[in-house]
Design the sequence.
């Protein structure tokens, strides 16, 4: 299905109005703590309406042809749920776009990363769009390394989790290179993402993971190591953790 850029249903303001119909006060109180929005935390300043993900997905279905202008406005919203719902719409459009439109959508995505600023926003959009794009267009994998060099934590995480489609196809080169690059990274969220992708690689080719661990387990951040070995036999986990 080709997405027509000018075709639109609704607007960012209407999207917000629809989400407000599903607010749960208990979640509005809980979610800021869960996503670490306090001073000095990774989600500092983010705001939550208190809308659950299934409700966001239901709302997104009614705004599937939201155009890029309105989607950009949604990604600029101070409300986390508005940005996440916009990304659900974006992923739906990407999955049904032709080759030319996919390239345009990825350009849009990379131009709006300022609104993709928490781990759930990254993890529910980057693998499903950018990851598929670089799998289908190997020459574009330079995008991953550009994002990895960014000073923006969320762009760095995008680089890592976008390797998932390649990993699923048995292509491990990019995650191995990025994992080496992030061995000295200081943030736990990068350790978790990298360990997660290494674990995914190991589930498809155990030798690839074990070889990486043999070379780097002594210098890997503990969280990265623990995530990467989670699916290994217990005796192997103990060996690598002792190192």
Sequence:
């Amino acid at each position: 299905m080709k997405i027509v850029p000018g075709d639109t249903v609704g607007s960012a303001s209407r999207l917000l109005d629809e989400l407000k119909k599903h607010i749960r006060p208990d979640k509005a109180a809980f979610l800021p703590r869960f996503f670490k929005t306090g001073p000095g935390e990774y989600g500092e300043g983010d705001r939550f309406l208190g809308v659950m993900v299934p409700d966001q997905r239901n709302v997104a279905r009614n705004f599937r042809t939201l155009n890029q202008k309105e989607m950009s406005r949604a990604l600029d919203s101070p409300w986390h749920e508005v940005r996440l719902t916009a990304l659900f719409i974006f992923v739906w459009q990407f999955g049904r776009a032709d080759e030319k439109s996919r390239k345009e959508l990825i350009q849009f995505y990379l131009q709006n990363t300022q609104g993709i600023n928490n781990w759930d926003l990254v993890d529910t959009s980057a693998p499903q769009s950018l990851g598929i794009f670089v799998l289908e267009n190997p020459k574009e994998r330079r995008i991953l390394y550009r994002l990895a060099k960014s000073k923006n934590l969320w762009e760095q995480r995008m680089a890592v989790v976008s390797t998932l489609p390649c990993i699923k196809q048995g292509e491990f080169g990019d995650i191995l290179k990025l994992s080496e690059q992030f061995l000295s990274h200081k943030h736990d969220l990068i350790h978790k993402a990298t360990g997660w992708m290494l674990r995914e690689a190991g589930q498809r080719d155990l030798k690839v993971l074990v070889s990486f661990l043999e070379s780097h387990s002594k210098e890997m951040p503990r969280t990265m190591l623990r995530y990467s070995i989670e699916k290994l036999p217990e005796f192997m986990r103990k060996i690598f953790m002792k190192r």
Remarks:
- Confidence is low (pLDDT under 50) at residues 1-8.
- The chain is about 65% helix and 0% strand.
- The first helix runs from residue 12 to 20.
- Residues 136 and 166 are 9 Å apart (CA to CA).
